[in-house]
Queue: 3 jobs
Job 1
Amino acid sequence: MKITRKNLDDAVDENIITADQAVKLHDYLSGLPSVGPTFNFTNVLYYLGGLIAIGAMTLFMNLGWESFGGWGILFISLAYAGVGLKLAGIFQEKGHAIPAGICATFAVALTPLAIYGLQQALGLWPDESVYQEYHKYIKWHWLYMELGTLMAGLIVAWRYRYPFLMMPIAVTLWYMSMDVAVMIMGDYSDFQFRALVSMYFGLLMIFAALWVDIRSQGKIDYAFWLYIFGVLAFWGGMTAQESDSELSKFGYLCVNLFMIAVGVVVVRRVFVVFGAIGACLYFGHLAQEVFEDSWLFPITLTAIGLLIIYLGVVWQKNEKALTVKVRSCLPIKLRTFLESKTS
C-alpha cells in the first residue's frame, strides 16, 4: 500500500511511533524514487511523453517513411531502439524505474517496424500493404513482425524486468489472436471463427497472466497488461458469438458472473468490469426481447438485486470463516498467492 502522511499521523495517534519519527520517515519516503504507477504529475509526464514517442513510431506512422526504403527504415529503427535502450540504462542506474521501463518499452515497440524494413529490403514482403496498416487491418503476414516483437519483448523484459514492458507483449499476443485466425482460414472470412480463436487465445493469456501473478508473489505487477488484453480478447470473442438459444445466452451470463467472482478473488478489476458489462448485456436482452411486454420483469429484477445485496451482508458476516475453509482445499502456492492479494 502507499504510505501517506495521514497514515503516519494515525500511527502517532496510536502511539506506534513518535511525531519526530513520523516526520523523518515521511521525509525519507518522499525522497525515494517512484517505482510504482502512482498517479501524480511526475508520472503523468513520464507516461504522456512515453506514449507520444511510442505512438509516433507505431500508431501514427505515416507513408512518408516509405521513401527511406527497406534498409533506411531498418537502420533508423535500430538507431532509435539503441537510443531507447541507452536511456533505459541511464535511468536504471539513477534509480528512475518508470522512465527506464518506458524507454525500454519504446525500444521493443520499434521491433515490428524494423522487421518490416528488413523484409522490404530483402524483397520478402508479400503484397502491396505498408507498415501504416499494421495497426488497422488483420493480415496473416503480420505474424513475422509479431513473433519478432515477442522475442524482443521477452529478451528486454528479462534484462530490465519492468512491468510496463509487458504492455507491447500483451498487445502483440492480442494482435496474433486475430492474425492466426486469418492464417488458418486463408481468404475465407468467417467472423465467428475469428471470434472463437480470439476467445481461446484470450483464455490462454489469462492463464499465463495468473501464472506470472503467482510467480511474482505480488512484489511487482508484471501481469497487469496480460490480464487487460487477455480479458479483452476472451470477453470480446465470447460476446461476438451468435446464438439463438436462450440456454447458451444464460451460459453467457454465468460466465460473466464467474468473471466477477474471479476478479474479486485475484483482486483484478478488469474481470469485474467486463463481467458486469456482460451481465448488463444479458439483462438488456431479457428486457428487450424475452420479457418485452412483461410488467413483472422489472419487479423481479429489482428483487434479485436486493437479494444480492442481502447475500453480500451475509457474506461479510461469515467471510473470514468461509475464506479459510475454501482456501484450505487449495494448493499451497495458490493459497499463499491469494493471501498476499488480500493482506
Job 2
Amino acid sequence: MSHTAHIPSHRKPRRSASKIALRAGVAGGVLSTLAVAGASGPAFAAEPVTETIEMPTITADFSTQVAQSADATAQAAANYELQAERDAAFAKAAKQAKSDQALAEKKAEAKKKAEAEAKRKAEEARASRSAERTTLSTASAKSDAVAPASGSVASVIAFLKAQLGDAYVMGGTGPNSWDCSGLTQAAFAQAGISLPRVSQDQSTAGTPVSLDSLQVGDLLYWGSAGSAYHVGVYIGNGQYLDAANPSKGVVIQDLSGYPATGAVRLL
C-alpha cells in the first residue's frame, strides 16, 4: 500500500459496474471527441464533455425490409431448386424418349427383316410348287399315271392315288372308305392345308381359277361356289381323282366325261 493512500486527495475513485456498462455503450465517436479535446491544450482540459453521438436504431420499417429481403432470398432459392428439378426431369424424359426411339427403330428394323424373310420364303415356296406342277403335268402328258415328285403337291397326289379302289361311303373319312369331301380333306392335310369338312365350304376355300388354266393339285367342284355338291382333285392330262359314288368308289376319271363347274387353287 502507498504511503499516501490514507490521504483522500490521492485516492482513486472506484467506478461501479453499472457506470462502466453505461459508458461502454457510448459510441466510439464520443471517445474520439474526448481525445481531440485533450490534445487541444490545458484550456480545454477542465471543460466537461457535453456532445454525444447516438447509435442508429433499428426501426420497424427496417425490420420489415430485412424480413422481406429474407423472404425474397428464400423464394429465389425455392424457385432455383424447382427449376433444377424441372431441368433434371426434362433431361431424364429426353433420355428416356431417345432410348424408346432407339428401341422402336430396332424393333421396326427387326420386323422389316422378318417380313422380307417371310416374303422370300413365300416366293421360294411358290416357285417350288410351280416347278412341281410343271413336272407332274409333263409326266402326266406322257402317261396316264402321274409320277410322284417331292413337295406338297406330290404328297397330295400320292395320298389320293394310294386310296384308289377304296369304297365310297357317305360321311366316310377313311382310312378305307370315303365320301368326296372326306377324301380331299385328308389329301390336302398331307400338305398342311386345313380344309373345311363339306363340299360347299371347300369350293370357296382357295383362290378361284379358270378351268382353262388348271394345274395339278387344283381342287375341282361341281355345282356353284359355296353350294357345291361334289369335289375332286385335278391330276393332269385332263383327269381328276375323286371318291365318285357308291358304285365306283375312289377312281380316276376324265373331265371330258363329267366336266367340273369350277376350281380353286390351294397350293
Job 3
Amino acid sequence: MTSYEDFAGREILPLWEGPDPVNVPMIRHWAEAMGDRNPIYRDDAAARATGRPGIVAPASMMQAWTMRGYAATVEGPDAGAAAGARELDGLLEKDGYTSVVATDSEFEFHRELVAGDRVSVREVVESISPEKSTALGTGRFVTTVRTYTDQDGEVVAVQRWRLLRFRPKEARAPRPRPAVNRDNAFWFEAAREHRLVIQRCAGCGTLRHPPGPCCPHCGSFDWDAAEASGRGQVYSFVVNHHPRHPAFEYPLIVAVVELDEGTRLVTNLVGVEPGEVEIGMPVVLDWLDADPDLSLPVFRPQSGIAA
C-alpha cells in the first residue's frame, strides 16, 4: 500500500509546455491588472534603454504561462499525464483531507522571460508532513518543487509550493455580530426580548427603519418605538449559494420584508424551500436565537400559504 512517505521525490506532473508563448498582449494585460506601471513591461524602447533585449514579462507571471486554462482543467489531464497527482489526491481524499488552502510560495528566478519564450513546468513532491492540527482543521502540508524551463531546456525559475490539505472542522461557527451603536441599540435590546419594534418620530409620527438619529421627513430628533404586528409580505429576495460562511446553512434565503406597518427590513426566510418563495407572499414573524446575547427576527410563510 502506498504511503505518504513514498511520494517524497516522486514526479506528480511530467514536463508540461504552456499553451501560449510569452507575448506582449498578455504582459500588458497583467501589468494593467496589477497596476504595475514599470515601462520595461509596456514600452520596447524603455526596456532596451535598460540593456534588455525588449519588453520582458513580470517575474510574478511565471505560473501564468503554464496554466492550462478553464476548459482543460475541467476536462482533466490526458490519460497517464499526471497519474502521480491523481494517486496522491486519491490518498488524501480517502483520509478525509478534502479541503485545500495554499500556505506559501517561494520563487528563485534565473532569468527574465521575453516575448517568444516557451515555458514548460515539471513538478516533484519534496515532502508531506505528518498529520497536524491547525485552526482550519487537521491536515498535512504538501510541499512540491516546480521547475520552469524554456524552449532550450534551460531553467528559468524554481518554485517551492506548499499546500495544506485538511479535514475541515465540523463545528458551526458563531453567527457574525451586528454593528450595534447608540442609534440602534434599542432595537437589538427589544429583539432579545422577542419584540420587533419600529422607530417612530415623536414630531410627525412617521415610522422609519433602519433606525437613525433624525427624522428624514420633519427633521425632529425626538422619537419613541412602536411594536410591530409581526405580519408582512416578501418585497424582494435572493437565494445565496456562494460564497459560503460556516455560520449559515445553505441555500440561504435573504429577503426584504415589507411589514404591514409600511417599513421594510432585511431578514432571512425560514420554513420554506427557495423555489416556493414568491414576491408578495404573506409572511409572519419568527425568532432566531443565535446565542444568549443575540436574537434576530426571521420570517416564515403565513400558515396555509407554504409548507
